[in-house]
Amino acid sequence: MKAGETIEVTDDDSFFGTKRGINIPITYNGKIIAVIGISGAVEEVRKYAYLAQKITDILLKERELESLGAQKKNRLNYVIRCLINRENMNTAYLSDTLKENGLSEDTLCRVVIVRLNVRYNPNNLFMIQSAITQAFAQMNCSFYRYNYPNEYILIIEKERLEKNRHILKRLADTYEKVLCIGVGSVSTVMAGAASYG
Question: Which CATH number fits the domain that encloses residue 150?
């Protein structure tokens, strides 16, 4: 680990207490965080060591992407909650979040509420929640949050909603006994509370 390079040991006890094999450093963001060591004849274990290194690299990248996705979702939840409840927030933080989602403070939007029937049997709830998020994805909308226990709040540009209204209609028709959908009046993103109310 100190050397920061792959070390191949061809004979047992080449160094005190060593066995033949290979040691490969694992790097993450330019720093060595671990070493994978596999004992055995170097020619035989080398390919497994490099395979383990690649798999570890993939797992670390997946974990980083999951973490970034969770951070983005938390950020959206916070911003949408502040907008619909008229809570104060840092304007730079708000502007950055809106910009990441293709919006600005002056964008004309509507708030869409998808509310689930709380009396509905929760066995199929995951399937219905998945259908809701898939409908939002079909509309190319990621600016939404889930309000526990039964409400989705989507802030969508006026024009995008008009072009994709049929997707919401199909969702409402498919799950008419399970959910209802409400669409607020047109307002700027900053006046989201007026559209939500």
Answer: 3.30.70.1230
Let me know if 10 is exposed, middle or buried by CB neighbors in 10 A (0-12, 13-18, 19+). Answer: exposed
How many angstroms separate the CA atoms of 131 and 43, rounded? 51
- Residue 150 amino acid letter: N
Pick from 107, 102, 126, 108: which is nearest to 178 by CA?
126
Final residue in a domain of this structure, among 63, 89, 115:
89
pLDDT band at 197 (very low <50, low <70, confident <90, very high): low
Residue 142 domain boundaries: 104-196
- Enumerate residues 6+ apart whose C-beta is below 8 A from 177: 117, 120
Give the pairing type, strands 108-116 and 31-39: unpaired
Based on C-alpha coordinates, what's the Rg of the chain?
Answer: 26
Per-residue pLDDT for 170 more than 80? yes
- Tens digits of residue pLDDT in 79-96: 888 888 888 888 888 888
**Tokens read off for 91:** 């304007």
